[in-house]
Amino acid sequence: MQGFVKHPLRVAGRSLWLVGACLWAALGYVVSVWFRGGVPLLTAQALWLQSACRRGLRILNLDLQTAGSIPLRGLLVSNHLSYLDVLVLSACAPCVFVAKREVRHWPVFGWFARLSGTVFVSRERRTQVAQSSREIQQALDSGALVVLFPEGTSSGGGTVLPFKSSLLEPALRSNHPVTAACIHYELADGDVAEEVCYWKDMTLLPHLLNLLSKGALRASVSFGEIRSGAPDRKELARQLHAQVLRLKEAACA
Q1: What global pTM score does this model have?
Q2: DSSP 8-state symbol, 70
Q3: Do 55 and 92 form a contact (C-beta atoms < 8 A)?
Q4: Count of other CB atoms within 10 angstroms of residue 160
Q5: What is d(CA 138, CA 134) in angstroms, rounded to the nearest whole number?
Q6: Rounded to an integer, what distance in angstroms lies between the CA atom of residue 180 and that of residue 171?
Q7: Closest CA to 187 of 197, 198, 178
Q8: How far is CA 167 from CA 27, 91, 119, 234, in A?
């Protein structure tokens, strides 16, 4: 909460802006999703989320830069640092996210996740993983870009955690394009690991209020398509992990 103490007017102003943006997003959902005409539901939801996320980045005064070809379909696998990752990747391209089941109940973010067609998964239950894999398969087959964070949790960005392979099977089985991405944040007036990354035992509201107090953020996303035909999902997970590490090293060089 130190950020709120230092910059109370900035936090209050951006908080009101955020509330207004959420109300505008709710209205936009009715217009662009409920009355979408002949547009497929997932496409309409992904475009709606992209518009909302781009407004969110403006509220945070976040400068977004990309390197490499941004994919428009297939599976996109990325490292995971914060709830900001969703805003950043969605701002790059309309997409459908895969998230842990707990996100469904988060304030504000859970509401956006449910309305945008997010695939929720509980990795501890095999039957749930199988159901989530089918939903991912359907989204891929529809031509959507599906975003997966295979680390299974967020981190402070010091390393890339090992990738879980259980949800990679749909892309492998159907030969959809697979792209790796690495997200990197910079913060001039603070500590990225403690104030941008959302991990350990952090609580959402205090973290978000502190983030709203920051002068400016920068996010860079590097993309690299995987072209090697992996024989199984575990090998694909290793290839993707290695590619994300290469992208991370290049971004930090």
Answers
A1: 0.95
A2: P
A3: no
A4: 20
A5: 6
A6: 13
A7: 197
A8: 33, 24, 11, 10
CATH assignment, 2-252 = 3.40.1130
Q: In this predicted structure, what is the pLDDT of residue 173?
A: 83
Cβ count within 10 A of residue 159? 11
Strand order in the sheet with 178-187: 62-67, 217-226, 178-187, 74-78, 145-148, 96-100, 119-121
Helix (H) or strand (E) holding 53: helix 41-59
Question: What distance lies between CA 160 and its chain's CA centroid?
Answer: 16
pLDDT digits (tens, 9 = 90+) for 137-191: 999 999 999 999 999 999 999 999 999 999 999 988 888 899 999 999 999 999 9
Q: Which residues pair with 221 in a beta bridge?
A: 66, 183
- Spell out the domain ranges in the chain: 2-252
- Other beta carbons less than 10 A from residue 157's beta carbon: 20
Q: What are phi and psi of 185, to 5 degrees?
A: -110, 150
| Total Cβ atoms within 10 A of residue 235 | 15
Report the C-alpha gap between 184 and 198 in whole angstroms.
13
Q: Which two tokens stand for residue 193?
A: 């690991």
Pairing of strands 62-67, 217-226: parallel
Token couple for 151: 């680390």
Q: Which has the closest alpha carbon to 148: 193, 184, 179?
A: 179
pLDDT at position 89 over 60: yes
User: Token pair 């502190």 is at which residue?
Assistant: 210
End-to-end CA distance of the chain: 32
Question: Do 110 and 185 meet the contact criterion of CB atoms below 8 Å apart?
Answer: no
Place of tokens 């973010």: 109
Token digits of residue 144: 């959507």
- Which secondary structure element, helix H or strand E, spans residue 80, and what is its range? none
Q: Residue 166, class by beta-carbon neighbours within 10 Å (0-12 exposed, 13-18 middle, 19+ buried)?
A: middle
